[in-house]
Amino acid sequence: MTWPTPNRWATDIYKEIRWLGKQHICEFHMKEKRLASGPGRCRFSKKVREAIDDIGYEGWMQIEGAVPQGKPMFESYQQNCAF
Protein backbone atom coordinates (compact mmCIF):
# COMPACT_ATOMS: atom_id res chain seq x y z
CA MET A 1 0.00 0.00 0.00
CA THR A 2 1.19 3.49 -0.82
CA TRP A 3 0.25 5.60 2.18
CA PRO A 4 -0.69 9.21 1.22
CA THR A 5 -0.25 11.37 4.32
CA PRO A 6 -2.34 14.44 3.43
CA ASN A 7 -5.41 12.48 2.39
CA ARG A 8 -5.68 10.97 5.83
CA TRP A 9 -6.52 13.92 8.11
CA ALA A 10 -9.91 12.55 9.10
CA THR A 11 -8.18 9.74 11.00
CA ASP A 12 -5.41 9.52 13.55
CA ILE A 13 -2.65 9.23 10.94
CA TYR A 14 0.04 8.45 13.52
CA LYS A 15 -1.95 5.58 15.00
CA GLU A 16 -2.82 4.34 11.50
CA ILE A 17 0.85 4.17 10.45
CA ARG A 18 1.64 2.08 13.52
CA TRP A 19 -1.44 -0.13 12.98
CA LEU A 20 -0.58 -0.85 9.32
CA GLY A 21 3.10 -1.43 10.05
CA LYS A 22 5.90 -1.73 7.53
CA GLN A 23 4.55 -5.05 6.25
CA HIS A 24 1.56 -3.23 4.69
CA ILE A 25 3.20 0.03 3.56
CA CYS A 26 5.40 -0.09 0.46
CA GLU A 27 5.82 3.67 0.05
CA PHE A 28 4.97 6.93 1.79
CA HIS A 29 3.68 9.78 -0.35
CA MET A 30 4.47 12.91 1.63
CA LYS A 31 2.86 16.22 0.77
CA GLU A 32 1.34 19.18 2.55
CA LYS A 33 -1.29 20.38 0.03
CA ARG A 34 0.13 23.62 -1.40
CA LEU A 35 2.50 24.16 1.52
CA ALA A 36 6.21 23.49 1.78
CA SER A 37 7.13 20.36 3.72
CA GLY A 38 7.25 20.72 7.48
CA PRO A 39 4.99 23.58 8.57
CA GLY A 40 1.71 22.20 7.19
CA ARG A 41 -1.22 20.35 8.69
CA CYS A 42 0.49 16.94 8.93
CA ARG A 43 3.32 18.17 11.15
CA PHE A 44 5.88 15.88 9.52
CA SER A 45 8.73 17.12 11.61
CA LYS A 46 7.76 15.15 14.72
CA LYS A 47 4.75 12.85 14.88
CA VAL A 48 4.83 11.34 11.38
CA ARG A 49 8.59 10.78 11.60
CA GLU A 50 8.21 9.14 15.03
CA ALA A 51 5.47 6.82 13.75
CA ILE A 52 7.58 5.83 10.72
CA ASP A 53 10.59 5.20 12.97
CA ASP A 54 8.44 3.19 15.42
CA ILE A 55 7.48 0.67 12.73
CA GLY A 56 11.06 0.38 11.46
CA TYR A 57 10.17 1.50 7.94
CA GLU A 58 13.19 1.92 5.66
CA GLY A 59 11.53 1.85 2.24
CA TRP A 60 10.61 4.39 -0.40
CA MET A 61 9.37 7.84 0.51
CA GLN A 62 8.12 10.15 -2.22
CA ILE A 63 8.21 13.81 -1.24
CA GLU A 64 5.86 15.98 -3.27
CA GLY A 65 7.20 19.45 -2.72
CA ALA A 66 4.75 22.27 -3.22
CA VAL A 67 5.45 25.89 -4.02
CA PRO A 68 3.35 28.09 -1.71
CA GLN A 69 1.69 31.07 -3.38
CA GLY A 70 4.07 33.99 -3.73
CA LYS A 71 7.20 32.01 -2.86
CA PRO A 72 9.98 31.32 -5.40
CA MET A 73 10.05 27.78 -6.78
CA PHE A 74 13.76 27.20 -6.18
CA GLU A 75 13.58 28.38 -2.55
CA SER A 76 10.52 26.17 -1.94
CA TYR A 77 12.25 23.10 -3.36
CA GLN A 78 15.32 23.79 -1.26
CA GLN A 79 13.12 23.85 1.86
CA ASN A 80 11.38 20.63 0.83
CA CYS A 81 14.71 18.86 0.24
CA ALA A 82 16.21 20.14 3.48
CA PHE A 83 13.20 18.88 5.39
Brief digest:
The protein is α/β, with parallel strands linked by helices and 83 residues long. It has three helices and three strands, in the order βαβαβα. A three-stranded parallel sheet has the order 1-2-3, with no helix packed on it.
Sheet/helix structural class: alpha/beta
Rg, Cα atoms, Å: 13 Å
The fraction of residues assigned to DSSP E strands is: 5-15%
Q: Biggest sheet: strands side by side, in what order?
A: 1-2-3
- Overall geometry comes to elongated
* Amount of helix: 25-40%
| Number of β-strand runs | 3
* Total of helices: 3
Q: How confident is the prediction overall: mean pLDDT?
A: 76
| Unreliable stretches covering 5 or more consecutive residues | none
Overall tally of structural domains: 1
**What is the CA–CA distance across the termini?**
24 Å
What about the largest sheet? Answer: 3 strands, parallel
Assembly category:
single chain
Sequence of secondary-structure elements: EHEHEH
What can you see in these coordinates?
- With 83 residues, this protein is an alpha/beta fold.
- It has one domain.
- The chain is 35% helix and 13% strand.
- The protein contains three helices and three strands.
- The chain has helices at 13-20, 44-54, 73-82; strands at residues 2-4, 27-30, 60-63.
- It has a three-stranded parallel β-sheet, with no helix packed on it.
- Helix 2 links the parallel strand 2 (27-30) and strand 3 (60-63).
- The radius of gyration is 13 Å and the shape is elongated.
- The two termini are 24 Å apart.
- The model has no long low-confidence stretch (mean pLDDT 76).
